[in-house]
UniProtKB/TrEMBL annotation:
Pfam families: FMO-like (PF00743), NAD_binding_8 (PF13450). One of its GO terms (molecular function) is N,N-dimethylaniline monooxygenase activity. This is NAD(P)-binding protein. It comes from Nocardioides flavescens. Gene3D superfamilies: FAD/NAD(P)-binding domain (3.50.50.60). SUPFAM superfamilies: FAD/NAD(P)-binding domain.
Length: 500
């Protein structure tokens, strides 16, 4: 039987994934007087790391930065597998008692802020029933992907294909691809993970082809961090984690800035590294040299060069072409070549979905998100007592997520000191609109117009620089940009807290 919901709590966090559990830790340590709940639509915690079960699923950021600042990562791998990350999240939640605040199978389908009462009313789907509860502050940690519906372009003739078609987001538990011919459509992080994974182990495929419309920048990285291993062997766990994390942040920031400021040199460096591994300049030119510059789209990392090794061993190949149509035996390309396949995996990407599908409204009127600005990458103009968690596109998601958690706590504590019932960011005049995510990737360009905007200057600009953000975010002048509703101005019957 599911745990009953209270009628009201101070803070509701949406999503019990990596971000939601981190938010719970910060709320209970930095705002200990505030009651909170984490509402999770699925039956288990972990978010991405519980949902995705395709072969080889792993992080594409190092675990010293993807992991929590307050919980040392003790695993061996720098880029960890999905199961290890899920265990880490669960262990963190249990260790700090955060799991006691999670309510599962509870999907937020509506959220309306009553300005007179300075309170959110949430409409929930729970165990097949619709119910409501209220909270003072709503914090969305559901990310910006649509976990119910991936991006699935239509392929002509797909109904003629006699093999099996699957999408990584919904990987069947009973799927046996051993000794089969597999075509993976795509060249992003999922595809470059799937290809080497499906060519290894006792259940390995007969052959795997990665079919890409155009090349992606891919960099080989060590599977273990030797410096971090040394630190962990000689120093206390907390100190070693802090130093390894700092090193990873410094290297990641420096390399991103190098790519942005010296794109031609970055292209040459990545091309040289890949050529050294594959030993074939023409292959690198044809299949691993994109037209865009490094970090115009997210850079794919492959541990121990596993993708390149699979290609070099002839267990896998990369084909750069477009699809003409599916045929019974596989895929016919625009060049006329037919890729024969028993299994086709459509690693065609994800779709964006703001706030886990919640469309916030104020006094019964839905907020037009595309007309709003994001403040400090965390709160939205026009939506009081609301925050969202958005990670970096050029670094670990958790780096910005943790800054946002701490900023939310700073705002909540500031509200208490000022006896404020509600706050909402007030945009500067003359802000120049920019897309929230300034990334050329297709999944961003398809949907970003429906998201809130960022501005051209602080605190409305969503920077992709953790070093600068870590120095400035928590020092921001809240009084300058937050509009306050004092508690004395709200209805007396709605102004008191109800503990959970």
């Amino acid at each position: 039987m599911s745990t009953p919901l209270p009628q009201h709590v101070d803070v509701v966090v949406v999503g019990a994934g990596l971000s939601g559990i981190g938010a719970g830790y910060r709320l209970q340590t930095e705002c200990p007087e505030r009651s909170y709940l984490i509402l999770e639509a699925r039956e288990s915690m972990g978010g991405t790391w519980d949902l995705f079960r395709y072969p080889g699923v792993r992080s594409d950021s190092d675990m010293f930065t993807l992991g929590y600042q307050f919980k040392p990562w003790r695993g061996d791998r720098t880029l960890a597998d999905g199961a290890s990350i899920l265990s880490y999240i669960e262990e963190t939640a249990a260790e700090f008692g955060i799991d006691e605040h999670v309510r599962y199978s509870t999907k937020v389908v509506g959220a309306d802020f009553d300005t007179a009462a300075a309170r959110w009313t949430l409409t929930l789907e729970r165990s097949g029933e619709t119910t409501t509860m209220t909270c003072d502050f709503l914090y969305s940690c559901a990310g910006y992907y649509d976990y119910d519906q991936p991006y699935a372009p239509h392929f002509e003739g797909v109904e003629d294909f006699e093999g099996r078609l699957v999408h990584p987001q919904f990987w069947p538990e009973d799927l046996d691809y051993s000794s089969q011919r597999v075509v993976v459509i795509g060249s992003g992080a999922t595809a470059v993970t799937l290809v080497p994974s499906m060519t290894a182990g006792d259940d390995r495929a007969a052959h795997v082809t990665m079919l890409q419309r155009s090349p992606t920048w891919i960099a080989a990285v060590p599977s273990r961090d030797k410096q971090a291993d040394w630190l962990r062997a000689h120093l206390p766990a907390g100190l070693a984690h802090t130093l390894a994390r700092a090193k990873s942040i410094a290297f990641g920031t420096a390399f991103y800035q190098y790519c942005q400021r010296r794109p031609q040199q970055a292209r040459a460096l990545l091309t040289k590294m890949t050529t050294k591994i594959l030993g074939d300049e023409q292959m690198v030119a044809d299949h691993f040299t994109p037209s865009y510059d490094p970090w115009d789209q997210r850079l794919c990392a492959v541990p121990s060069a596993d993708l390149f090794k699979a290609i070099k061993a002839c267990d896998a190949e990369v084909v750069t072409d477009t699809i003409d149509r599916f045929v019974p035996e596989g895929i016919r390309l625009s060049s006329g070549r037919v890729l024969e396949a028993d299994l086709v995996v459509t690693a065609t990407g994800l779709q964006l979905k703001a706030f886990g599908g919640i469309a916030p409204s104020v006094d019964g009127t839905e907020v037009e998100l595309s007309e709003q600005f994001v403040w400090q990458g965390a709160m939205i103009s026009g939506v009081p007592n609301f925050a969202l968690c958005i990670g970096y596109t050029n670094a670990s998601w958790t780096l910005r997520a943790d800054l946002t958690h701490r900023l939310v706590c700073k705002v909540l504590n500031w509200m208490d000191r000022r006896d404020a019932a509600a706050v909402v960011p007030r945009p500067d005049e003359g802000l120049e609109e920019r897309p929230l995510l300034d990334l050329a990737a297709g999944y961003v360009q398809r949907s970003i117009a429906s998201f809130p905007r960022q501005g051209d200057r602080a605190p409305w600009r969503v920077r992709q620089n953790y070093v600068l953000d870590s120095l400035t975010t928590l020092r921001t002048d809240l009084a300058r940009t937050l509009e306050v509703t004092p508690r004395s101005a709200v209805r007396r019957d709605a102004g008191e807290r109800v503990a959970s």
